Amino acid sequence: MSGRRFSGIALLVVAGFMFLGFLRSGLFLSSPTAVFAVLLTAVLPAAVGFNLLRGTRTSRERIEQLRDQTIESELQRLARQHNGRLTVNDVVMALALPAAQVQERLDAMVRREAAEIDFTEDGVIYYTIHGGQLNAAPSDAPRRLSDG
Question: 125, CA 20 to 30 Å: which among 7, 17, 90, 135?
Fold first, then answer.
């Protein structure tokens, strides 16, 4: 059990006992002091506990998202080195990722229309990554003021 998860559960237990103690004390929420005491001793620890428990799952999702973004950035960089055309083997050798994972990432880019799939006359499948060409088309090139 991770430290965050243990801390979150411990805070929820403390908040539960504090709230139970408040209910058994016979005090009512009619005075501002009682309201403040309940907020401070029961609601605040419960909120922090829930946040710690929720944050554990969120941090894993964030790590997965960052990994996906990093792999896609590396695919873009590699595509620029290969004039926009990549094979699964090119990526496997350059990034040391499993072939199945590379195939999945490239196919996901095709589904998102960030890449196109094609093959050579020899039957080699390659992916053309949009934005991966090293040289921009002449119409996209920046023009100097003297070019008119």
Answer: 135
Ranges of each domain in the chain: 3-62, 82-129
Sign of the dihedral defined by the CA atoms of residues 71, 72, 77, 83, in that order: positive
- How many Å apart are CA 62 and CA 68, to the nearest integer? 10
Strands in 125-129's sheet, in edge-to-edge order, are 85-86, 125-129, 115-119
> What is the DSSP secondary structure assignment for residue 21, as one 8-state letter?
H
Q: Domain 82-129 classified CATH 1.10.10.10?
A: yes
Q: State pLDDT tens for residues 21-35.
A: 888 887 777 788 888
pTM of the model: 0.53
pLDDT digits (tens, 9 = 90+) for 121-142: 888 899 999 876 544 444 444 4
Neighbours of 125 (CB within 10 A): 13
Q: Which tokens is 133 given?
A: 């060409």
Query: Interior CA angle at 79 toward 90 and 144, to 5°?
Result: 155
